[in-house]
Specification:
This protein has ten helices and 13 strands. The protein is α/β, with parallel strands linked by helices. The chain has a single domain, classed as P-loop containing nucleotide triphosphate hydrolases (Rossmann fold, 3-Layer(aba) Sandwich), CATH 3.40.50. Strand 6 and strand 7 form a beta hairpin. The protein is globular. The protein binds adenosine-5'-triphosphate and magnesium ion.
């Protein structure tokens, strides 16, 4: 069979499997690249990241690694079960590894990353990177989520150190060969980012927002940038329901 442009394009994509989203992305996220998922509190970053991993496992046989920096494992597992996503089962079937690095925020004295417990001072990007690499190898992961990367980066003082930390993490993620979704929080509604260099380092940026329209809140998704990918970069509505996130690629919000 001839190798058509459509075939080549399909081979270079990692479908998110999220209803409507792959249409905006011409088939999915660019394979082996790191994409930034940017949004304020409650916009669905964790749900979308989880859905990306779960769909990968169930529909594409892509094992996944979830690095959680804000929320603990029990909470996330509980929340995701509401959508019918059984992280515990996926983990016991070696399709998913959940790395809980959330105590960075809550336990200044010691940090638990996977099975390792290390002191706050000794904890470094290197430790986390090592854990990610080991986990990726262990299950042959093709997808990685880091949620949210801001917690990790803000441990460092000053823009230069923060930028270097992020570069280090992103290079390590690229080395794994997986397709990576890293989330970041917006400081406040609108377009201002908590740190703005991250979007220049990422191969793509997806923005989630909540807009006040009259008395109701409208959820809006926009593909801000996606290198080497023809995308629909118009803002489009999305919904969160009890089956996860659904994007409406043909509806306009303006
Ligand atoms: N079953 C559901 N139906 C509709 N909306 C839901 C449902 N479950 C959760 N939500 C909505 O999803 C949002 C939370 O999603 P999620 O935790 O992914 O957000 P987030 O961007 O990760 O937030 P944070 O910045 O706090 O981590 C909330 O706004 C909540 O109202
Ligand atoms: Mg979250």
């Amino acid at each position: 069979m001839a190798d058509t442009a459509a075939d080549r394009s399909a081979n270079s994509r990692t479908p998110t499997g999220i209803p409507g989203l792959d249409k905006l992305l011409t088939g999915g996220l660019p394979k082996n690249r790191t994409i930034l998922l940017c949004g304020g509190p409650g916009t669905g970053k964790t749900i979308m990241s989880s859905q990306f991993l779960v769909n990968g496992i169930l529909d594409y046989e892509d094992a996944g690694v979830y690095v959680s920096l804000d929320e603990n494992k029990v909470h996330i597992f509980e929340e995701m079960l509401d959508f019918g996503w059984d992280f515990e089962e996926l983990e016991s079937n070696k399709k998913l590894i959940f790395l809980e690095a959330s105590p960075i925020r809550y336990l200044p004295a010691e940090i638990k990353v996977g099975k390792l417990t290390v002191g706050r001072k000794e904890f470094s990007m290197a430790t986390l990177i090592e854990m990610i690499k080991t986990s990726v190898k262990e299950i042959g992961a093709k997808r990685i989520v880091v949620d949210p990367v801001t917690t990790l980066v803000f441990q460092y003082d000053g823009v230069v150190a923060q930028r270097n930390a992020l570069v280090e993490l992103m290079e390590a993620l690229a080395d794994t060969g997986a397709t990576c979704l890293i989330t970041t929080e917006l400081r406040r509604p609108g377009f201002e980012r908590s740190i703005d260099y991250e979007e220049y380092l990422a191969h793509g940026v997806i923005l989630l927002q909540q807009l006040q329209v009259g008395k109701s809140l409208l959820r809006v998704i926009q593909i801000e940038k996606m290198r080497k990918t023809p995308v629909d970069n118009q803002p489009r509505p999305y919904r969160i329901t009890d089956t996860g996130i659904e994007v409406f690629p043909r509806e306009s919000v303006l």
